[in-house]
Amino acid sequence: DYSTRIPIETADEVGRTASAFNHMVTEVSNRTQQLEEAESQSRTLLAENRNLVHTSLNVQEEERKHLARELHDELGQCITAIQADAESIRDLSREGDKRIETSASAILDVSSHIYEVVHAMMQRLRPGVLDDLGLVEALKEELSTWQDRHPEIEANFDVAGSLDGLDERINITIYRIVQECLTNITRHAGATRVSISLSGNIDRLVLSVSDNGKGLDQS
Fold it and tell me: Which candidate, 61, 207, 59, 182, places its Cα nearest to that of 131?
């Protein structure tokens, strides 16, 4: 409480001391008020920044979902049609010119490769299993796909607790964190073993991603 002031009744040393004290109290009160206002503004700005980040992430995820759906509906169907036509040409040409069969087989191989690439892109953009089966199954599939690409790295995934009913934003955040960790491990860690654990419930989650790689240079 900085409202207390000393009455100034004389102009002598006591009065001057009282005046100096009152001035000091006023300055402290003003500075304290300024600090409180600055802290309040900082809290407001921090809350606004968090809201902006959440909004940005939501927009980004919606765009990814939309793009993945378009890839599946448009490009995926076209590739499937190309594969079907190539199979028909190959089957019909087996009794005739072998060059036609060879070309049709080449088209089939290329279209199959394109389909695999597009499917992988769709999974990176928005894993369908995350919406269909939930976070745990999506992480299992992501880790399995990652292991197929990096069979030299041993990977373990442990789950504990009740993870059903989590908010969609939490699900996608956890999924993206694990996804980014696996990417960084591949690029930088030089690891041969990776361990991922997820535990908790709807109120509290604990995610751990560790590896036996070289880590960061602390020098």
Answer: 61
Rounded to whole angstroms, what are the CA distances from 94 to 80, 83, 88, 110? 22, 17, 10, 20
Cα separation, 28 vs 91, whole angstroms: 91
Domain count, the chain: 2
Percentage helix, strand, coil for the chain under 3-state DSSP, each rounded to 5:
70, 10, 20
Q: What is the CATH number of the domain that holds 137?
A: 3.30.565.10
Per-residue model confidence as pLDDT tens digits over 145-156: 888 888 888 888
In what helix (H) or strand (E) does residue 197 lie, and over which residues does it extend? strand 193-200
Residue range 171-184, pLDDT digits in tens: 888 888 888 888 88
Tell me the two tokens of residue 115: 């389909």
**DSSP class of residue 188?**
I
Given 79, 99, 126, the domain boundary residue is 126
Tokens of 114: 């394109």
- pTM for the full model? 0.50
Distance CA 105, CA 38 (A): 70
